[in-house]
Design goal:
Largest sheet: 5 strands, mixed
Structural class: alpha+beta
Bound molecules: heme C, copper (II) ion
Strand content: 15-25%
Distance between the termini: 27 Å
Number of strands: 14
CATH topology of the largest domain: Immunoglobulin-like
Order of helices and strands: EEHHHEEEEEEEEEEHHEEHH
Strand order of the largest sheet: 5-4-3-7-10
CATH class of the largest domain: Mainly Beta
């Protein structure tokens, strides 16, 4: 994919968060089955569980798959047998109807119902008294994130969720416009984000690492570019991270960065964006306080680099048509570079 920009003559990049490298393997070389299995691993896979909820759902998924597979085989074998023998020689005709057609489904479906009921209860009770609540609001087409720790000021961020490993956390999801759906398959089940209503998703991430999620409910033209990153840190590292977030962004260290910051205010970016410790406090767009530390830009659309930030500022409407940020294609290249460098330095 080639993104625009007179800036450095444009550049080529793969999407920030290609789910798997398998796509580069020429299909004739490997059987399709192998390709399909490769797709099961990685940072956005319900089959590679790294959270308690995802693990429970995975086990249930395998039970359904194995049970359904066994029943399919048995029915197929019976059907084959029935086709081969003469009808009057097929043993126990009535018993099959009553046993296979009524008793068996009643027993298996009841057992499954009880299992699912217990599962739903366990999932709902994962974080009864959460020490951390993360409020996530879906916008067309990005994610506003607020961390709430009892007794502390809420902390605002965007497009990336950082979680402590092993600690129960409650996600509270809502929407600012249309229905979105929050789904990080490696960590937990999917949950709808509904305007005017808050849904709760208790979560315990187990394995530190970088995961990916995305909007799972069609929400308009750029629904496909509405992804997010989840960074799971060891609990101690998470506490240090949280404390560090409250620090205002540092003064620009070089004259170029200072020029970038000044241009940010001169072009009015602060009317939509907030940067902690500056007078920028806009709420229309993502908080940019730690933009440089996030793995991806514009909700998983591009990897975060000075070049991609510059390309975004200049061509937001080209990269993600109809999103709510105008393209700023009027500034000179040096100003653009400086602005992108300043934003990238916010870590
Ligand atoms: C009218 C409001 C508005 C203005 C003005 C605006 N932006 Fe944005 N900006 C947004 C919105 C909304 C998004 C989210 C777009 C999306 O991903 O759908 C965004 C996204 C971004 C992002 C990506 C953020 C992330 O979390 O990855 C950057 C960087 C950014 N804007 C920089 C700027 C800069 C620099 C300016 C000034 C030159 C600016 N914006 C002006 C609304 C605005
Ligand atoms: Cu969406």
């Amino acid at each position: 994919m080639v993104w625009p920009g007179r800036h450095r003559g444009g550049f080529t990049t793969a999407p920030a968060t290609a789910p798997t490298a398998a796509r580069s393997v020429p299909p004739p070389v490997l059987p399709a089955a192998v390709l399909a299995l490769v797709g099961c691993e990685g940072r956005q896979s319900a089959l590679d569980a790294a959270g308690v909820g995802a693990q429970e759902i995975l086990v249930t998924g395998w039970i359904l798959f194995a049970g359904g597979g066994a029943i399919l085989m048995a029915v197929m074998a019976l059907a084959l047998y029935a086709a081969l023998v003469r009808p009057e020689r097929f043993p126990g005709r009535r018993a099959w109807v009553i046993g296979g057609g009524i008793l068996f489904p009643v027993v298996t479906l009841t057992a499954l119902q009880i299992h699912e009921y217990a599962l739903a209860r366990r999932l709902a009770m994962l974080a009864p008294e959460p020490a951390l609540v993360v409020e996530i609001t879906g916008y067309m087409w990005w994610w506003d994130v607020r961390y709430r720790v009892p007794g502390q000021e809420p902390l605002r961020a965007a497009n990336e969720i950082v979680l402590p490993a092993g600690r129960p956390v409650e996600l509270r999801v809502a929407s600012a416009d249309v229905i979105h759906s929050f789904w990080a398959p490696s960590l937990a089940g999917k949950i709808d984000m509904i305007p005017g209503h808050v849904n709760r998703l208790p979560m315990v991430a187990q394995r530190p690492g970088l995961y990916r999620g995305q909007c799972a409910e069609y929400c308009g033209a750029q629904h496909a570019l509405m992804a997010f990153d989840v960074r799971v840190l060891p609990a101690g590292a998470f506490d240090a991270w949280m404390a560090d977030q409250r620090r205002p962004v540092p003064e620009p260290a070089t004259s170029v960065l200072a020029r970038g910051r000044d241009a940010f205010f001169a072009f009015g970016c602060q009317s939509c964006h907030a940067v902690r410790g500056t007078e920028a406090s806009g709420l229309v767009g993502p908080d940019l306080s730690r933009l440089g530390a996030r793995p991806s830009l514009a909700a998983g659309t591009l990897p975060t680099r000075v070049e991609t930030i510059a390309a975004w500022i200049q061509g937001a409407q080209h990269i993600k048509p109809e999103n709510r940020m105008p393209s700023f294609d009027v500034m000179d290249g040096e100003t653009l570079d400086a602005m992108a460098a300043w934003l990238e330095s916010l870590k």
